[in-house]
Amino acid sequence: MKALFFGSIGTIVETSQLQYDAFHVAFAQHGLDWHWDLPTYRDMLKISGGANRISVFADKRNERVDAAAIHATKTSWFIEKLQSDTVKPLSYVSFGLKAAQEYGMKTGFVSTTEKATVQIIAQKLVAESHQGFDIITHRGLGLPEKPEPDAYIHAFEALGIEAQNAIVIEDNVDGVAAAKTAGARVVGVPGAFAKQTDLGATDTTFGSGSDIQWVSLLT
Question: In 3D, which of 155, 150, 153 has the Cα closest to residue 109?
C-alpha cells in the first residue's frame, strides 16, 4: 500500500454528539420545535448533506423552511465548539499516521465538507506533533460532494497514486460509496451513533478505531 486517507471528519475526531447537538441548537435559534431522537437522527444520517436532511424532514412535516440558513447556523455553532481544546483527535488516528509515515506512505484527509472545519481538524493533528497531510480536500475546491468519487480521484491524481494502492478510512455510507467507486480499498469505522452493519459495502469494518491492526492493514 502506498497511501492512507482519512475520508471524513468523524474518522479523525469523534463528533457524533457535537453534530447532533448542533442541529438542535440551530432548530431552536430558527424557532422550530423539531426534535430528532436518536433513531430518527440515525435515519437522517443516511441522507447526504445536513441541508438536505433538514429539507427532507421539513417536507415530511409539510413545513417550509430555509434549510440553507438553518444549516449555516448549525455549522457556525459546530465550528465554534470544534475549536475547543477538549476536542482531540482519536488515538487510533495517531497510530495510523505514524505507521503510514514509517512505511513511507502518502497521507490524506479527503473530505467534501466546509473548508474551515477541515482546517481546524487538520490543525489539531499538527498540534499533537504530527506532520501535515500530503493532501487535504474540502468543499471550497468545488469538487462534487460524496457519494461522487471526484474528491478521491483528485487526491489520487495529485499524489500520483493508483487507487488500488490506497487505503481509505470512512465512517458513513456516502464516503464509503465514493471511495469504492474511485477504486480504493475501504475500511469502515462507524461513529458513536452508527452501527457496523451500516457500512456493509466496505472491504473491512471495525467496531471502533482502536480495533485496527495497523501493521497488518498497511503492509
Answer: 155
CA distance 96 to 49: 27
- Amino acid at the residue 109: F
What's the N-to-C CA distance of the chain in angstroms? Answer: 6
- CATH topology of 3-13+88-218 equal to that of 16-82? no
pTM above 0.70? yes
Domain ranges in the chain? 3-13+88-218, 16-82
CATH class of the domain defined by 3-13+88-218: alpha beta
List, for residues 209-219, the tens digit of each pLDDT value. Answer: 777 888 888 87
CA atoms within 13 A on the CB side of 3: 28
Count CB-CB contacts under 10 A for residue 112: 26
Q: Where are the alpha helices (DSSP H) in the chain?
A: 16-29, 38-44, 50-60, 67-82, 91-102, 115-127, 150-159, 173-182, 214-218
- Give the span between the Cα atoms of 165 and 176, in whole angstroms: 16
* Whole-angstrom distance, CA of residue 43 vs CA of residue 166: 30
For 16-82, give the CATH class.
mainly alpha
Measured CA to CA, the distance from residue 82 to residue 110 in angstroms comes to 18
| Residue 118, C-alpha cell as written in the block | 477541515
